[in-house]
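Troubleshooting entry. The earlier prediction with iron/sulfur cluster gave an output that would not parse, so I re-checked the input for stray whitespace and re-submitted. Clean input:
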Amino acid sequence: MAFYGGVHPKYQKEISCSKPFESMPSPEIVHIFLSQHIGAPCTQTVEKGDKVFAGQKVGESEAFVSAPVHSSVSGVVVDVLPKPHPSGLLSPAIVIQSDGQDKLHKSVKPRKNFDKLSQEKIIELVREAGIVGMGGAMFPTHVKLCPPENASIDTLVVNGAECEPYLTCDHRLLVEESEKIFSGMKILMKALGVEKAVVGIEENKPDGIKALSEAVEDPFIKVVSLPVKYPQGAEKILVKVLTGREIPTGKLPLDSGVVVENVGTLAAVHEAVASGKPLIERSLTCTGSGVTEPKNLRVKIGTRMKDIIAYCGGYKGTPERLFVGGPMMGIAQPTDEASIIKGNNGVTVFSRGTFQDPEESPCIRCGKCLEVCPYTLVPFYLASLVEAGKFSRAKEWGILDCMECGACGFICPAKRFLVQRLKYGKAKVMEAGRK
Ligand code: SF4
Ligand code: SF4
């Protein structure tokens, strides 16, 4: 059940994997970005000076591929203006001053007999709750629940791999909220009209595998223990490993008869459908050598990274690198002012001295990057095409298939900045495509 390629970075999950979730109190200020998902950004539905409640919709879009956003606290809208977004750019956000009371909006109430809801009603509730992929992809979940008529979906694939080093929030969800995950799975299986589901969890989470296996009461749901290898949790890899099906270049999982959801998304689906609670808080891990007390947390969407780090005892040593997410696929941040959006599963800080700064040297054509690329790309050649500005040639050589996992750069003895070049090259190819 192993996949081609992959690497074994230092996982460092022992720093936080046995720490139960703490609910971080609401911060004084939250920034609710109007763009927290793949697809059309929202338009604000509140104005400066409005009083809002936790769970109240504050942004909406009529586009199908979009998801509404909600206030994560009760308080007052103090402004709507561009703020540092985890993408590294400035992006419009609704700035809400919390009143510290977390009063819920009247629409947030538990739903009796939620297991009797129709497929259409489930899809509507998932959309209204603003659920998007919480493993990082941020694709609106209701869109996945409405496949085209010619797609024949028969399996829900559940991603509990959490292969990213340092991060442990999905692990803790499996241990602490396995019943919610199972409930979310049943809800989505009903919405999709499928009878089968398969969950992939890396074997370094034995207590998570045990907890979910015990919670699952359905002979058509399999919980599978996977060998530890990065990037096991990449969508195409997980589908291949768990179902044997390939997802061809340029195609989606639904083209191969599957829908993939992360365990955090399933817990959020349960909250939306059973508890009537929109996606206003999420689990994440705040960790790394630069954090005084690493923790697994439940935080309000819109919380600033600096507030999360302060809640974890502040910086340890001199912070040198800060990521939203983990060190392999996370996004390096120029500031700790950025605020958390729905897809952010970690805040990772490294203090000065954790790493030696890599000195890039010329490629020695050792071929190691080629051996570890799970998609059998030729990273050194693609990077050289990008350097030479030969973007259409890079497209022919499959640069758009690169999932930016960083395995090639990790293994490279010459410390080539491969993934940075590949990201740049992909952006240029996509820009040319749009023109
Ligand atoms: S970053 Fe891209 S090229 Fe490098 S190993 Fe991952 S998928 Fe392959
Ligand atoms: S691993 Fe580095 S040095 Fe080796 S072929 Fe790839 S880019 Fe060149």
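This one parsed fine. DSSP finds 13 helices and 17 strands in the chain.
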